[in-house]
Amino acid sequence: MTQINPYRPYLYFGCVNRPGHYVHDQNLQSVQQSFRQRWPNLLQKVEQFDGSLLPETDLHPPYTVYLTVFEGIKYTAFAFWDFTGDTRGGSNSCFWCPTLSGSAEDLWIEIQRRFPKTLIERFPLLNFEATTYKPAERGG
Description:
Elements: E1 11-14, E2 22-24, H1 33-38, H2 40-48, E3 63-70, E4 75-81, E5 92-97, H3 104-114, H4 117-120, E6 126-135
Parallel strand pairs: 3-6
Antiparallel strand pairs: 1-2, 1-5, 3-4, 4-5
């Protein structure tokens, strides 16, 4: 069972309506300055790890999900290669979940519940069978 912190937001780092990776809230709005002031360390982490949580493999569907636990900021990154919003090399998506536990399947259920269907439908080919789960080696 995934334990969620109700006081910390879920975030999406990836492409929404244009190429380029940006931090978005659950309404797919780009994160505003007031949000950055409230959680500056969190946003630094989200932006810092763009693409670095994924190996240089699994570049074709179905995309393997990689979970990385960041105990210091109390988040789990749910990352995968993703070329649906940006076809350039290195394109990826990452949901930042305010929990330190849960399987990829459990986190995906919660992500689907929280984010708009229009975004979720972009990711039909996720591979949960080969999911890796690891603690952050740096910066977590």
